[in-house]
Each structure stands twice: as structure tokens, then as C-alpha cells.
């Protein structure tokens, strides 16, 4: 039997039993994220066989009517390949659950470090924002809108680079289309989403503006304990520009946090290039940035590929088990979910 056929059979048989669960490192609406080690991994594998395994319950997905989102997440992850986006390595399913096997990014969440430091300097925030802009630009070039850019969805790797993750709310939208779904986390949602006016890629640039504001000041530009009042503030009120920031930072924040999407920086025909050319990014060499040649000054304290020191104790304390779930009555929702990342034996296709 040829090597290619052997590999295909191995992939088709792959399932939860091929991975040893080590710890819980996150939790979402549909299940948990585990730190796992692949059994019998290739010794030449730089990851040491260590991955993040995102497990989602089919019954909960169907009940919440999120089947299309979960299928889109898997499909979108197979189409992106970028130095600042977490890569999907495998996907498979059982009768009751969906599984995504992703690179384990062990530096923790970017905002875990922000909360520790209080605020970032403009120089530090510039690097992180530039890497986020580069990642979001890559998505937009492929017709993908992330729609859920928020602190929990930005990780930091062991070298100090940011990595965009969680594509559960992402959607493929062509240039002339609008989506009317209400999705995301309120503090980071663009006014046009909250007002159900229809949105496209411009909504992501608003969220980038909110993230930058939070990095530089320690909190989002609009906050309120009451969700309805928070929405009113985002859609109607002006935000305050802290006096300790440079005029260039003020200029960029005002341009990104523009309530009218058509006037927002990045909304024009050249999109992300408008943002990259802004004077606040003058010192950024975008080519070197994308080649990861720029070395961040801050590196998280990481002891190895399976280090979890930078993750929240509330997750790490959870029982590390993939508990049983009921099997949905219909099995047609997730046909063709299995995937393996390209390698010398397999093409970039679903199996």
C-alpha cells in the first residue's frame, strides 16, 4: 500500500482516542478547550505532539441553532494560513461531538498580560495592533469577516507574537453583501451591528479600534453594567480621548472608532492599506512584521510546549475529561466535517 493511502486511512480513523487529554485551558458556549498530546506523534514534529483540542456538543449547537456557524468555523479555518492566526491541524466528529485540533498557543491571552501590566505603552501596543491588522487583512482578502474580535480571542505565543483565534462567529461575505446577524460581544461590537443596519468587513476595524483603546487605557471606550445602556452609548455617544496619548494615537482611534462605517478607516477600496499607512504605524516595516522578523520586547514566561502557567486558574482547575453527551437524532448536520492540514501526503481537502 502506498504511503498516501496509509496516511488517508489513518486520518479517516482519527478520533478522540488518538489524543491524551492533559488539562482544560478554556471553555465556550458549546464545550471546552483541552491541552492534549497526540499518541504516537512524529518525533520530528516541532509541536511535540501538543495541541489544543476544541470540543463542541452537537446537541447544544443544534438547540441554539448554530449549526451554520460551526460548519463555517471549520470551513474558514481550512482556508486561512497566516503567521498571526492559529492553524487548524485536524477536524473530526463522533456521533455526539465535533472536534477541532489546533496549534496550542502557550503564552496565554494577550489581555491576561494587559491586566497584569495595567496598560501597554504605545510602542508595545503598536506591535500587537499591527499584527492584528495584518491577520484581519488576510481574512478580508479572502472574503472572511471575523465578527468577534475581543480580548479572549487573541492569544500570545511563546515568542511574544499575537495569534488570532476562535472563528465561531466568522462569516464569508462578498464585497457587495451585508450580514444582519447580531453577533459578538457588546463592548466590541460596531454600531451598525447593534442597530441591525447590515454589516461587512468594516465592523472588524471598529473592533480593532476598541482593542487598541483598551490596550492603551486599560478599558474599552464604552462601558456600562446595563447592556441596553451600553448599546445606547456605543451608537450615540462620543468617546473620551485620554490626554496622555500622542496625537497620532488620537488620530488613529478617531478614524477606527468612526460610527458611520463608510467613513471608518479601512472601509475604502484599499481597505487595510489605509490603516497600514496611518502615521501611528510609521515605524512599522510590514514586510518584516509578516515574516516574524520583528522580535517583540515582551516574551511570556513559558517553560515548554505544554506550559499552562499563562492560563486562568479557573479553567486549569476543571476536571480534564471529555464527558459524555447525548447523540442528536439527526446526523445529517455535520456531513464532511473531517479534515487534515496539508502535508507531503495529502492535499488540502476534506476527506
TrEMBL record:
<comment type="similarity">
    <text>Belongs to the protein kinase superfamily. AGC Ser/Thr protein kinase family. S6 kinase subfamily.</text>
</comment>
<feature type="domain" description="AGC-kinase C-terminal">
    <location>
        <begin position="282"/>
        <end position="349"/>
    </location>
</feature>
<dbReference type="GO" id="GO:0009651">
    <property type="term" value="P:response to salt stress"/>
</dbReference>
<protein>
    <recommendedName>
        <fullName>non-specific serine/threonine protein kinase</fullName>
        <ecNumber>2.7.11.1</ecNumber>
    </recommendedName>
</protein>
<dbReference type="InterPro" id="IPR000719">
    <property type="entry name" value="Prot_kinase_dom"/>
</dbReference>
<dbReference type="GO" id="GO:0045727">
    <property type="term" value="P:positive regulation of translation"/>
</dbReference>
<dbReference type="InterPro" id="IPR017892">
    <property type="entry name" value="Pkinase_C"/>
</dbReference>
<keyword id="KW-0597">Phosphoprotein</keyword>
<dbReference type="GO" id="GO:0005634">
    <property type="term" value="C:nucleus"/>
</dbReference>
<dbReference type="InterPro" id="IPR017441">
    <property type="entry name" value="Protein_kinase_ATP_BS"/>
</dbReference>
<dbReference type="InterPro" id="IPR008271">
    <property type="entry name" value="Ser/Thr_kinase_AS"/>
</dbReference>
<keyword id="KW-0723">Serine/threonine-protein kinase</keyword>
<dbReference type="GO" id="GO:0004674">
    <property type="term" value="F:protein serine/threonine kinase activity"/>
</dbReference>
<dbReference type="Pfam" id="PF00069">
    <property type="entry name" value="Pkinase"/>
</dbReference>
<dbReference type="InterPro" id="IPR011009">
    <property type="entry name" value="Kinase-like_dom_sf"/>
</dbReference>
<keyword id="KW-0808">Transferase</keyword>
<feature type="binding site">
    <location>
        <position position="54"/>
    </location>
    <ligand>
        <name>ATP</name>
    </ligand>
</feature>
<keyword id="KW-0418">Kinase</keyword>
<feature type="domain" description="Protein kinase">
    <location>
        <begin position="19"/>
        <end position="281"/>
    </location>
</feature>
<dbReference type="InterPro" id="IPR045270">
    <property type="entry name" value="STKc_AGC"/>
</dbReference>
<dbReference type="InterPro" id="IPR000961">
    <property type="entry name" value="AGC-kinase_C"/>
</dbReference>
<keyword id="KW-0547">Nucleotide-binding</keyword>
<dbReference type="GO" id="GO:0009409">
    <property type="term" value="P:response to cold"/>
</dbReference>
<dbReference type="GO" id="GO:0005524">
    <property type="term" value="F:ATP binding"/>
</dbReference>
<dbReference type="Pfam" id="PF00433">
    <property type="entry name" value="Pkinase_C"/>
</dbReference>
<keyword id="KW-0067">ATP-binding</keyword>
Amino acid at each position: 500500500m502506498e504511503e498516501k493511502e496509509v496516511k488517508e486511512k489513518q486520518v479517516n480513523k482519527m478520533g478522540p482516542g488518538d489524543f491524551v487529554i492533559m488539562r482544560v485551558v478554556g471553555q465556550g458556549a458549546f464545550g471546552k478547550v483541552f491541552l492534549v498530546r497526540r499518541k504516537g506523534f512524529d518525533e520530528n514534529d516541532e509541536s511535540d505532539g501538543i495541541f489544543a483540542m476544541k470540543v463542541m456538543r452537537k446537541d447544544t449547537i443544534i438547540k441554539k441553532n448554530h449549526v451554520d456557524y460551526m460548519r463555517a468555523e471549520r470551513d474558514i479555518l481550512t482556508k486561512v494560513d497566516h503567521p498571526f492566526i492559529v492553524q487548524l491541524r485536524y477536524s473530526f466528529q463522533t456521533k455526539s461531538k465535533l472536534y477541532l485540533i489546533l496549534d496550542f498557543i502557550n503564552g496565554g491571552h494577550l489581555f491576561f498580560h494587559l491586566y497584569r501590566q495595567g496598560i501597554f505603552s504605545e510602542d508595545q501596543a503598536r506591535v500587537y495592533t499591527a499584527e492584528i491588522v495584518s491577520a484581519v487583512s488576510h481574512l478580508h482578502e479572502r472574503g472572511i469577516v471575523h465578527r468577534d474580535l475581543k480580548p479572549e480571542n487573541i492569544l500570545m505565543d511563546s515568542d511574544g507574537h499575537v495569534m488570532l483565534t476562535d472563528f465561531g462567529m466568522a462569516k464569508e461575505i462578498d464585497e457587495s453583501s451585508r450580514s444582519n446577524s447580531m453577533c459578538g460581544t457588546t463592548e466590541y461590537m460596531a454600531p451598525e451591528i447593534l442597530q441591525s443596519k447590515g454589516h461587512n468587513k468594516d465592523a472588524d476595524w471598529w473592533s480593532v479600534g476598541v482593542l487598541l483603546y483598551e490596550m492603551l487605557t486599560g478599558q474599552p471606550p464604552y462601558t456600562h453594567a446595563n447592556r441596553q445602556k451600553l448599546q445606547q452609548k456605543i451608537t450615540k455617544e462620543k468617546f473620551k480621548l485620554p490626554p496622555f496619548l500622542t496625537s497620532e494615537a488620537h488620530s488613529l482611534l478617531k478614524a477606527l472608532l468612526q460610527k458611520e462605517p463608510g467613513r471608518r478607516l479601512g472601509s475604502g477600496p484599499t481597505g487595510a492599506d489605509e490603516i497600514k499607512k496611518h502615521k501611528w504605524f510609521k515605524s512599522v516595516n510590514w514586510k518584516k512584521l509578516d515574516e516574524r522578523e520583528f522580535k517583540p520586547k515582551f516574551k511570556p514566561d513559558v517553560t515548554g510546549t505544554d506550559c499552562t502557567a499563562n492560563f486562568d486558574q479557573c479553567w486549569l482547575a476543571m476536571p480534564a475529561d471529555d464527558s459524555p453527551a447525548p447523540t442528536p437524532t439527526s446526523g445529517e448536520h455535520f456531513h464532511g466535517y473531517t479534515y487534515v492540514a496539508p502535508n507531503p501526503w495529502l492535499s488540502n481537502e476534506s476527506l
